[in-house]
Amino acid sequence: MIALLRQRLRRDWLQVLLWILATALMAFAGFAGVTESYSTHADRVGVLAAVMANPVIMMFRGLPSGASQGQFVSFEILPWLTMLAALMSTFLAVRHSRGDEEAGRSELIAATPAARTLPTVATIVHGVAANVVLGLLVALALAGSGLPAAGSWLAGVVSATTGIAFVGIGLVAAQLMRTSRGANALTIWILVATFLINGIGNAAGIPSNDLTRITSTWPVWLSPFGWAEQARPYDTDNWWPALLGLVFGLVLAVIATALQSVRDMGEGFVAARPGRTHARPALSHPQALVWRLSAGSIVGWAIGGALVGLLATFLGGLLDQVSKGNSQVVDILTKLAGGASLDNAMVTVFFTMLGILAACAAVQVVIHARQEEAHGTAEPVLATATGRVRWLADYMIVAAVTIVIVVAAAMAAGYVGAATNNGSSELYRSITVTGLSELAAAGVFVGITALVFVLLPRATMAVGWALVLLATVFGMFGPLFGLPEWTTHLSPFGVTPVITGDGVDLRGLWWLIAIVVVSAAAALALMRRRELAADG
Fold this sequence. Notes:
By secondary structure, the chain is an all-alpha fold. Helix content is about 75%, strand content about 0%.
C-alpha cells in the first residue's frame, strides 16, 4: 500500500498541487474581490434581491443564505470551489484506475502480492487525502481572510466531501466503461447534470420575505453540490449535509472495489459496440482516425455550446424586468462584460463561458495525442508514411475545427433564441461579434497545449487543464473578484473584442492571433526532432 501511494504521489504531484492551489487561491481571491466590490450590507442585499428576481441566473450561482459578508462570499464562490474539487477528483480516480489498466500497469501490479483490489484501495486513500488537503487550505484561506472560523472550516469540509463523492463516481465510471476516455466523459456528464439539478432546485426555491435567503426544493438532495450548499456555511452551519458527500463517496468506492474483483482485466460492464468487419473508406486517412476518436466528446461539447447560446439570448429578454426591479444585477453583468452596454452584457458574459467550453474541447483533443502516444497506439500510425509533424498537425486541425463547431452551435442557438424573443439587430450583431471573438481566444489553447505536448509530453494533461483553469479565473471571475486589470488581460477570455456603441473594440485580437500562429508553428517545428515518450 505504502509503495503504491508513493508511486502515485511521485507520478502526479504536480497535477494535484495545481488543482489544490488554484482552489485555495479562488477562495482567497473571492473573499477579497467580493468584499471590495460589495462592501456594504445594502449592496449585498440589492444583489441578492436582483438575482432572486431572475431564477435562471441563480442556477449558476450558489444558495443565498443571507447578506452578511461570509454568507455572500459563500453564495458567490462555494459552487466553484466544489466544482474544482470534483474535477480534480474525477480525473484522479480515472487516471489511477482505468487509465493504469489501459497502460498495462494494473496487470503488472496484479501479478504481485498486491493483487487486483489493493491498487483501487490505494487510489481511494490517495483521493481522500488530496481532498483533505484541499479542504484544509480552503478553510485556512477563508479563515485567514477574517471570516468566522466555524463557517470557514465548514466551507473547507464541504469542498473536500464533494471531491470525495466524485472520487467514488470516478471509480465506478472506470469500472463501467472500457476506456479512460469513456470513463472521463461519463463522469463529466454526471458532474454537469448534478450541477444543473442543484441549480434548478435552488432556482425553484422559495425566497424569504427580505429576499436574502432561499429555501431550496427537493432536487438539490439529488446532487453532491446541493449537499454542500445545504450545509449553509456562515449561516446555520449544518454539518450533517457535509457528511452525505463523504458517505456517498465511500459507498461508491466500496462498490467499485467489488466490481473490480469480479470483472475481467481490460473489460467493462458497459459492452463495447461491435466493430465493422471492414473500415469505411474515410478511415484510410490518419486525420479520420482523430475524428473517430474525438467524435463523441465533440458532440457533447457542441450540445453544451448550444445550451450556452440559448441561455444567453433567452436571459437577455429578461434584462428589462431585472433592471426595473433592482439595478445591482446590471452592475454585475456590465462588470463581467468589461463595461459593455446592458444590451450586450448578457451575451458577453455567457459567450465568455462559451469560449471556455470551446477551449476545453480543444485541449481535450490535443491531450488525445498524448494519450495515444503514452498508450503506444501512436506507433502503428507513425510506422506508416505519416510523419510526426503530420500526425500532430492532424490533432491540431481537429482541435481547431472543434472550436468552430462548438462556437457555431452556440451562435446558431443564439440566433434562434433572439428570433424567439424578437431580438433587435444589435442583439444579432452582438452574438456574431462575440461568438467570432471566442474563436481566437479558444484557439490560443490549441497552440500552447500542442507546444507543451512537444516540450514536456508528460505534463501535457496537467498544464493544459491548468492553463484553462487559470484563464477562467482571471478572465471570467477577475472583474467580479476585484482583481487588478492586468491580471484580467493575462487571460485570452479577458481581451477578446467587444462592441462599443456603433463600433467594435478589437482589444487584444491581434495578440491572440499572433500567439496562435507562433505557438502552433513552434509546436510543429519542434515536433520534427522529438522522440516518442510512450511511458505515462
